């Protein structure tokens, strides 16, 4: 049986029939398409003799694409320590713009990073 | 799809179904509802040792000799026996009902010399290298010790405390760290915290946190000592600038370094004693000061606020001592401060306490709270697992039930919280809960039988904490949390028929982390303890 999984045992050998070429001599025969829901359109996959690709789905809009300059990093501090730092910074930040600050470094808010950095929470 | 509690059905489901992502430990643990230590061998004949603990990977059982000088390590194994005849459902043959059927002695090592004793409450284990840390000390601790430079009065003194690093597989002593004329609180691992390969030892007497690293080769390496100095080169810096310091005879800095500085050259005439506060204390005081300063923008209000909140309590802040330390991650320490009286006593609940988060790399105090702080309590309620830091290996160490990872534990906590109606009761509640912050390392058993989502049991009688409990004649029941809420097994400590007299007895439970095997040890004063083995037959 010329299936994707060779001669492996299975409950029903016809389960993966849509991964097999229905006609090996005709490379552009399309497979049985599963039900497609908007907003996706289904790209018909073409089957060649030895290549079997399952059907793929491509998005029809770009609303959910990440920004092109996104950098994903792992935050070194865990959430508890981040909370401690957050509260500590609030305490050390002066309530109003004071004329005299004890320590200029801690006086201003932390500068926001320029590029959209998304941090993975460990 | 109904979830069957039948073990064969569960095994079949496991073959064909993928569990939800990230739930490998939970899926494996479900089987512990079916495999329970329901059978008990009462009062088994065993060597007269003090059984301390199963290691967290389940490979060893650690025990000490009765004279507290030797370490004996056993390998847990399962009993095996054969019986002739067709009917093998009878009771175990007497040959199987022995301690040696379950445990094989690996070796016996002498740790303590003649005038020292092993601290039986202290034991730390590193899974990845299978290293263990034990402590021996000369006894008894001397109270009312003579005052030494740098030592705070009121803390007892032990002549020699030695920490031994051993490889548990063969009992080789790899390294030692000795503290002379010092005091480290060793009961239930309180004064020491192990995080991955970093060890923090709190010297109560000299108010120093010693950070050591355990290398793969088995060496204990000093990393830093926080207390008097914060950075490694503070001492050098201060000594090289000694001529600008107002020194007096009692300055601890000069005497500790042993550097001979001509006192006449560097002493300025002062009208009063001027000793430096320790580096850590200075960081703490400046953090408190800056916080109060930044609360107001008007200078006169600031000064009022500082007078009331800072200077009025200045001496109290200065008198605070380090009680306990834990790691929050590799760079941050959570330090518990309190008064001298509470540092040594076992029960310090009624003493005021403070918590500080300290960054070892930047040497900054990040946060400072009193033990009545609701903000800190909220962090504790939401992020309890980040307070109970555990190494990631083995994986089930991160799944010990707490109110942050278990709905039943959280409900229990909230029901106690709801009972606090008034603000005073709420304050008492917060103080009680925060009493357990600054967690003692490796004090909870990772056994799945203590998983609150699998079993319900009476927490006053038994729990994952390895503290001794009061004895009870009634068996302790473990009931499933899920339908059909049945009693799965009972643990009955003490002799089968119960105790003849009503003497107060203590019980300790040792649960194996992965096998359905547990020991319950009933301690009676002046008698040999009675040991029961609970296992799945």
UniProtKB/TrEMBL annotation, chain A:
Transmembrane segments: none annotated. GO terms for cellular component: Cul4-RING E3 ubiquitin ligase complex. InterPro entries: DDA1-like (IPR033575), DDA1_dom (IPR018276). It holds the Pfam family DDA1. One of its GO terms (biological process) is positive regulation of proteasomal ubiquitin-dependent protein catabolic process. Residues 3-27, 40-88 form the DET1- and DDB1-associated protein domain. Belongs to the DDA1 family. PANTHER family: DET1- AND DDB1-ASSOCIATED PROTEIN 1. This is DET1- and DDB1-associated protein 1 domain-containing protein. It comes from Trapa incisa.
UniProtKB/TrEMBL annotation, chain B:
One of its GO terms (biological process) is carbohydrate metabolic process. GO terms for molecular function: ubiquitin protein ligase binding; ubiquitin-like ligase-substrate adaptor activity. Pfam families: Det1. GO terms for cellular component: cullin-RING ubiquitin ligase complex; nucleus. PANTHER family: DET1 HOMOLOG, DET1 HOMOLOG DE-ETIOLATED-1 HOMOLOG. This is Light-mediated development protein DET1. It comes from Trapa incisa.
